[in-house]
Write a structure and sequence with these properties.
Length: 208
């Protein structure tokens, strides 16, 4: 009599395949996590760079306002401060912009690299700021991420918002049109409080 063989079990052959597939899935999960860590660090660096560049440009805008305030009623070319011609002497290369950028970068756990660099975008003055995060990407399955810092840069510009008659007499009262908001200035009877907030006269925004 010929005895029947017991059915062959597939357990021995499927176990290695299961272990292999589990290893692949785990590796993919850790790799995805590593890329997510890197993306998070880059986003943090970009946010820090954006904030630092805006701070630098806003600091320069404050300098512009001080220059304008000092020129009205004392200088015949005070209107130049409103159309951009006065920007060259407004301290755009000064330490104030760099200090402001450094402060905002520090608040975002980052450090400014090389200071705030004066630049021009489309004829508008501005600042380019590069930063590096103080924190690293973190430990992951990708070698070196535990010591890798994220970097980013951003540029912010200052744009005049006010129009006026180019033939206007700078010694006479004048009405500025600041994106639809009228601003009256009388050089002969000027008070600093006559000027609106700096954001009415000059806008600051990130350049694309």
């Amino acid at each position: 009599m010929i005895s029947a063989r017991p059915p062959r079990s597939d357990r021995g052959s499927t176990l290695p395949l299961y272990i292999w597939l589990t290893g692949i899935l785990l590796f993919a999960a850790f790799a995805f996590f590593a890329f997510a860590q890197a993306a998070s660090a880059r986003n943090g660096a970009q946010s820090a760079a954006d904030a630092a560049a805006l701070a630098a440009a806003q600091s320069a805008r404050d300098d512009l306002m001080e220059g304008l305030e000092g020129a009205i009623g004392l200088e015949d070319d005070w209107l130049d401060w409103l159309d951009g011609d006065g920007f060259d002497g407004a301290g755009l290369d000064g330490a104030g912009a760099t200090a402001a950028a450094q402060q905002l970068a520090a608040e975002n756990d980052s450090t400014v690299q090389g200071g705030a660099q004066a630049t021009s975008v489309g004829g508008l003055p501005g600042f380019r700021v590069a930063v590096e995060t103080n924190f690293t990407v973190g430990d992951s399955i990708i070698p070196g991420t535990e010591t890798q810092h994220a970097k980013a840069d951003a540029t912010a510009v200052i744009e005049p918002r006010c129009d006026f008659d180019l033939d206007a007499d700078p010694t006479e009262p004048i009405t500025l049109d600041c994106d639809g908001e009228p601003v009256d200035i009388d050089p002969e009877d000027f008070d600093v409080d006559d000027l609106p907030d700096a954001s009415v006269l000059f806008s600051v925004y990130l350049a694309e």
